[in-house]
Amino acid sequence: MGAGKTTVGRTLAQRVGLRFIDSDHEIEREQGCTIAALFSRLGEAGFRDIEARAIDALTQLEGIVLATGGGAVLRPENRKALHERGTVVYLRASPDDLAHRLRNDRNRPLLQQGDARAKLHELFRVRDPLYRETAHFVMDTGRPSPALLTNMVQMQLELAGVLSAADRRD
């Protein structure tokens, strides 16, 4: 959450001519309400059920760049689908960097109660091993601009042969 998945994913997709999909936006469109409203109405477990169905369907598509919600890796079936059906890049950001980036964001349901920084540290403790298990590549984000981070991801994917330099549109 807040690592840059949507921004980097959208920019990368535009550069290489692929369709960009954000799983949270797809869920909101399908459900007709915000993720925050789903959390409020269904609780986290109910939301995760909907998310798992969306991840299963979206990972079966080809020619896309997919950004998932930060908690998508909590379900083993999501980790398996993501890892086996695509090339996963984990944009790894420290909890303190995320706290700085998200300090004014009121649209993150998991950060709206209590100490947001402490919650981010706890989420990182639980999720970092799951992200690492799912990912083919781990990119430490630090504090580069979104454009620089996109360049780093694109170069890593080109070096690995996942993308071709000929695909560039920038």
What proportion of the residues form beta strands (DSSP E)?
Answer: 5-15%
Low-confidence stretches: none
CATH homologous superfamily caption:
P-loop containing nucleotide triphosphate hydrolases
CATH-defined architecture: 3-Layer(aba) Sandwich
Number of domains: 1
Count the strands? 4
Structural category is: mainly alpha
What does the radius of gyration come to?
16 Å
Secondary-structure element sequence?
HEHHEHEHHEH
Describe this structure as you would to a colleague.
- The chain is mainly α.
- It has one domain (5-159): P-loop containing nucleotide triphosphate hydrolases (Rossmann fold), CATH 3.40.50.300.
- Helix content is 56%, strand content 9%.
- It contains seven helices and four strands; from the N terminus they run H-E-H-H-E-H-E-H-H-E-H.
- It has a two-stranded parallel ribbon.
- The longest helix is centred in the N-terminal third of the chain and has 24 residues, at 35-58.
- The radius of gyration is 16 Å and the shape is globular.
- The model has no long low-confidence stretch (mean pLDDT 89).
Main traits of this protein?
single chain, 7 helices, Rossmann fold, 170 residues, two-stranded parallel sheet, mainly alpha, 56% helix
Question: Topology of this structure?
Answer:
Elements (H helix, E strand, L loop, with lengths): L4 H12 L2 E4 H9 L3 H24 L5 E4 L8 H10 L3 E4 L2 H7 L14 H19 L2 E4 L5 H14 L11
